[in-house]
Amino acid sequence: MSDISAAGYLWETARKKFLLLSFHESLLFSNNVDRQRGTMKIFISGIAGFLGSHIADKMIKNGHEVTGCDTLIGGYLDNIPDEAEFHQVDCCYLNTMVKLTKGCDIVYHTACTAYEGLSVFSPHLISQNTYQITATMLSAAIANNVGRFVHCSSMARYGQQHTVPFREKMECKPQDPYGIAKYAGELLVRNLCEIHGMDYVIAVPHNIIGPRQKYDDPFRNVAAIMINLMLQNRQPIIYGDGTQKRCFSYIDDVIYCLERLAFNSDVTGEIFNIGPDEEFVTINELAELIADKLNFKLDPIHVPERPQEVFLATCSADKARSRLGYHTRTTLSESIERMIGYVREKGTKKFRYHLDIEIVNEKCPRTWVDRLF
Ligand SMILES: NC(=O)c1ccc[n+]([C@@H]2O[C@H](COP(=O)([O-])OP(=O)(O)OC[C@H]3O[C@@H](n4cnc5c(N)ncnc54)[C@H](O)[C@@H]3O)[C@@H](O)[C@H]2O)c1
Fold first, then answer.
1. Cβ(120) to ligand 1 under 6 A?
2. CATH T-level topology, domain 39-279+289-369
3. Is 312 helix (H, G, I), strand (E, B) or coil?
């Protein structure tokens, strides 16, 4: 490195450090969430989605300026709060992302085609909208010296492990294209943020439920699909024998953590599981719980299991409890009641087979090929 470029490098490093310090200095520690002084500019990728729109609400409520983008491949347009500036555009458009993230203090990257089961059959679609968009968002955020990048990963990063609950330090063994793309996205976040000195945090949510979640999508959101079906007096369809187990988080509990991941000063460069580790239920038990709430006579239809489905999936919340002050505020029973209330209010919907299945063969679930939902 020549003297001039070495001096340039030192100057650039010092400048970035100053920007990071300024960012941290704009935070005041209070009550386990660092309180922000003044308005921040926040960009949310996937703002029409379930998670993105709730983050937008929270940030607007806290007095911040929110801009976001979404292609509407998932999510619902009416999820987006009126006060947010919305751009219907793909995160893959680098020049547009550079323009939109200019001057932003925080980027929440939630955009994704989060279709774990489908990813085995549509790897092109899922990788493009999981890994590639992360590269683009990072490039734009780093070019603009954004203060912090909050990356939404997924518990799919863990894959099938020998023990549960999954802990942040476990070796990742993703076992489908979605999990692989999510984990690769995390590696990219760490790599680029560390090289260029951008502050980052990685959130690992589990199965989230709550209002605004898509319930007419045949490819994901098991609880929402079951509610939409049972409210139409139709039996739920269960892959395999239904003894696979999951933990569900209510959206407000997830937002509580995501707010802290953006504003707390002691979490940078870290990864956090987000969600409860209580109430580990089988898919059969989940169907029974929903049926009980709806007084529905349950006789589920069982179809062959999906390739690569993880059998036991639950994450430890120990780190979130000790570092973010997390505790589960909403039980599974209450979460289901609120989700039922939401679907009732919006009205049941016909399922939309809106995504291409790239590989249609004998392994592809009949639920999708024959449109059984
Ligand atoms: N909901 C869960 O249970 C859950 C669990 C673990 C992780 N996550 C992660 O949380 C994030 C949000 O999930 P969600 O449940 O809110 O999903 P969602 O589908 O409701 O929201 C994602 C949004 O991203 C948008 N999007 C997809 N590709 C895009 C692109 N190329 N450009 C712009 N917008 C694009 C979709 O249209 C959608 O509105 C995802 O990264 C997901 O992997 C969710």
1. no
2. Rossmann fold (3.40.50)
3. strand
